[in-house]
Amino acid sequence: MLMTANRRFAFSASRRLARPDWDSLRNEEVYGAGGEREWGSGENYAAHLVLAGEPDPTTGMLVNLTAVKAAFQPVVDSEYDHKFLNLDTPPFDRLPPTPELVARELLARGQAACAGMGVQVVACHLQESELTAASAYADGRIERDWWLELSAARVTRSPFLTDAENEALFGRAASPLGHGHGYRLRVTLAAPLDRETGLVSPHELVAGLLGELHAALDHRNLNLEVPALARQPITTECLARFVYVYLWPHLPVTRVRLYEMPHFFAEYDGERGYLGLERTFSAAHCLRVASLSDTENRRVFGKCSNPNGHGHRYTVQATVAAPIDARTGTVFALDRFSAGLEQVLSELDHRHLDHEVEAFRDRPSTGENIALVLWPRLAAVLDERLVRLRIFETGNNRFTLRAEE
Ligand code: NI
User: Taking a C-beta distance cutoff of 8 angstroms, is the pair 284, 310 a contact?
Assistant: First the structure.
């Protein structure tokens, strides 16, 4: 399994997406910067540094995220936060501050800041706004995310199942009277960066296709009003696949994620379907290693070593993967997924992890160790289909375990 730890850095900045040597028409085609004036516009950004390595067997930490913060926050504060990127932040005096290029630059700066910590900074995810994001990876790959919001009605059902089978599998979602969701759709594009534009794909092409897609799905009855979905199961998995198939002839789409609710999504990557589900648990804990002195514990764990403890409401996101079943249109039965996740988390909920949960008697209850403890238990109740497990300890820190491909 691969483990990563993720630290979030927020900053607010203005930026102007336009090349001074191009006229406004060309800039608008490429950057969609209609109305972008001399002093640009602003965003509240969140940059996530992703660090990979092996957790230390004694401390249970892959890396001390407090040290990562101490190393990288000065870069964010002095060069990115409350700046005009085009004038204040090299290399964006020469290159357009596209999300792709800002993510790539922050990755390089993060790698330099964290050198010598014994971990690899393997990625930087940059959320530019609710609707745009980009990721840069240590192996040189760049991805761009586009988000879309839409509302639609549907009956969750497969034409290949009987009414009784549909009802048994989908419950109330199979009611012939229908139901609705406000969906959030994330389309991830991956391609070598265009040197001239600093983008994966030009704005006009992407916005045009996503606009067509939005018009086809938004405020529609998906069973009755979308001809391309006829004779297919109407499930969240199949809707994600539909979007992927719709876009891939025209865009370098690498995966599509469709959130049906903030805590539930389906994803499709051209081969497999994925379902992700989040649940929370609330627990107290205290990070201390018995073999270390009080001073050592304080040095390693900081305020997390408070002897009387502290606590978190942890969010756990589990993702399962499988080929989408042709008959049912599903990856995994949602009711079993939800029940399995809740059953496993109930063992930690409203406990002091270190005093009351056997698994943490001999190892500190770090986010890394919580992920390692939960993985085999979740994998067992999820038919060994678990491929990714995320533990969000706070809004700033999260830990991820992935099955190796
Ligand atoms: Ni804590």
Answer: yes
The three-class DSSP label of residue 188 is strand
Q: What is the pLDDT of residue 282?
A: 98
* Active site positions, annotated: 304, 350, 393
**Distance in Å, CA 109 to ligand 1 centroid:** 27
In the reported structure, the alpha carbon of residue 380 is separated from the centroid of ligand 1 by a whole-number distance in angstroms of 27
1-139: which CATH architecture?
Answer: 2-Layer Sandwich (3.30)
Q: Is 377 exposed, middle or buried (0-12, 13-18, 19+ CB in 10 A)?
A: middle
Distance 144 CA to ligand 1 centre (A): 32
Closest CA to 314 of 376, 378, 395, 387: 395
CB 163 within 8 A of CB 175: no
- pLDDT tens across 176-228, in order? 999 999 999 999 999 999 999 999 999 999 999 999 999 999 999 999 999 99
Which residues line ion ligand 1, judged by CB < 5 Å? 304
Show the tokens assigned to 74. Answer: 């000065």
Residue 91, preceding peptide bond in cis (omega within 30° of 0): yes
Looking at the DSSP bridge assignments, the partners of residue 333 are none
* Residue 33 dihedral angles phi and psi, to the nearest 5°: -85, 45
How far apart are alpha carbons 318 and 344 in whole angstroms?
11
- Whether the full predicted model's pTM is greater than 0.85, yes or no, is yes
Distance CA 116, CA 51 (A): 13
Contact 147, 131 (CB under 8 A): yes
CB 128 within 8 A of CB 99: yes
Residue 306 CA to ligand 1 center (angstroms) comes to: 10
The span from the CA of 329 to the CA of 350, in Å, is 37
